[in-house]
């Protein structure tokens, strides 16, 4: 899984990358995390791609909590050094993704 300029993932089974019928199997950006979220081009509502704007909104939430400009690299560093606030935001996001029953519209 990656979070940088976007939110993405790959689907690897038995050591092989699986692309799905349209080449986007495992595309985590289209997991719905907010039922009442904005409409996404994939047809779902509240996808990670729309709720977190493929990553920048996550940085905005952290900046709001800290009241300081924070880059993606700052977030990585804070998380790596055990910053409680950043780790909580990332943990909450991970739990939300893990709890949702994804429908992979592009598989």
Q: How would you describe the overall organization of this protein?
A:
The protein is of the alpha+beta class. It has a single domain (2-99), classed as 2-Layer Sandwich (Nucleotidyltransferase, domain 5), CATH 3.30.420. It is built from 4 helices and 4 strands. A two-stranded antiparallel ribbon has the order 1-2. A two-stranded antiparallel ribbon has the order 3-4. The longest helix is centred in the last third of the chain and has 16 residues, at 84-99. It is globular, with a radius of gyration of 15 Å. The model is unreliable at 101-107 (pLDDT under 50).
Q: State the shape.
A: globular
Question: CATH H-level name... which superfamily?
Answer: ATPase, nucleotide binding domain
Portion in helices: 25-40%
CATH class call: Alpha Beta
Count of individual helical segments? 4
Sheet with the most strands, sense and barrel status = 2 strands, antiparallel
**Mind telling me the C-alpha Rg?**
15 Å
Count of domain modules = 1
- The largest beta-sheet arranges its strands as 1-2
How are the SSEs placed, and which strands pair?
Elements: E1 2-3, E2 7-8, E3 11-13, E4 16-18, H1 48-51, H2 56-66, H3 72-80, H4 84-99
Antiparallel strand pairs: 1-2, 3-4
Features of the shown structure:
107 residues, alpha+beta, two-stranded antiparallel ribbon, two-stranded antiparallel sheet, 4 helices, globular, disordered C terminus
Summary, kept brief:
The protein is an alpha+beta fold.
């Amino acid at each position: 899984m990656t979070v940088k300029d976007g939110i993405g993932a790959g689907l690897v089974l038995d050591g092989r990358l699986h692309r799905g019928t349209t080449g986007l199997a495992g595309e985590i950006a289209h997991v719905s995390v907010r039922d009442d979220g904005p409409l996404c081009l994939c047809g779902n509502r509240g996808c990670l791609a729309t709720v977190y704007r493929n990553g920048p909104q996550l940085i905005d939430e952290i900046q709001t909590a800290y009241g300081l400009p924070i880059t993606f690299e700052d977030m990585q560093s804070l998380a790596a050094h055990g910053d409680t606030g950043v780790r909580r935001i990332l943990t909450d996001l991970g739990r939300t993704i893990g709890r949702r029953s994804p429908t992979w519209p592009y598989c």
